[in-house]
Amino acid sequence: MSALTIEFAGSRYRFAGLNPEQDGLVRSRFQALLGRDGAEADVRIDIHFDPNSGAFMRRPLGPVEYPIAVVPGDKSIAVAGIGFTANIDRSPFRAQMQTCLSDEWFSAAFENLFRIVACYQLFMEGALVMHSAAFSDGARGFLFCGRSGAGKTTLCRLANELNLEILSDELNAIRPVGGSFELLAMPFAGDFGGDPRRHPPYPLTGLLGLHQGSAPLVSLCSKAEAVSRIVASCPYVNADPQLVDKLTSRAEEFVERQPLRMLAFAKDTRFWSVLDNEYREPSTAVSR
Fold this sequence. Notes:
Layout: E1 2-8, E2 11-18, H1 20-30, E3 43-49, E4 69-72, E5 76-81, E6 84-89, E7 94-99, H2 104-124, E8 128-136, E9 141-145, H3 152-161, E10 165-168, E11 171-177, E12 180-185, E13 202-212, E14 217-219, H4 223-232, H5 244-257, E15 261-265, H6 270-278
Parallel strand pairs: 2-3, 3-7, 9-13, 13-15
Antiparallel strand pairs: 1-2, 4-5, 5-6, 6-7, 8-9, 8-10, 8-11, 11-12, 12-13, 14-15
Helix pairs in contact: 1-2, 4-5
């Protein structure tokens, strides 16, 4: 059995108990984020391989998208999906995974659990992980949250056409630093940002809600709506009864320091000239 460490967004995750096939799959996927084996980990995740497939949810026939069961409890969070179950202890924060998988299905199970663990870990570190799209022009970072279908992946496609650096069209994190915030890349994505690699933290210049319109326009958003949008965009944590009040308070603190605005955009690249102008001087930009 082997172990490896994956590093990103300031945290180290140590995975132990991998069999050779599982180890190869994880190393191939997260090669760019592998850390030194001797480095002290922030979170330990133990993998237990059980070939008795009858003990787990059976695989469907053919490709399929399915929800992961996540059940927060007083002392731990239970997780279950196709071919695996897991338990995440709240204190000390750590996880155990039981699985019968060693093929490409293990890669999916591993990443599904990893997403949940990372969302909790970063929340405990003072950050918020948001279901969002994010990109950078090399100096400024922009994050866009919105309901499913609001256009996050479309926006990333357009930003990619403009040679902007895509972080992810699925999960990104923001963390307070001094009196401002930084945008942190996470190695989880859909159509864009899918190859994990190391990104520097970017100053969070624009925090925006997203909806489609006939022409690009940045507009104001009330504090109540901004808080609601942020809370709704924070997966797993926003469904945890022990954390939702703290999440709401943190979202309120965030929008006091970094107002959330709304971006209406059509399916073309005109949005970037509007954003570039709106946030050219972040400290003095005037809302439209």
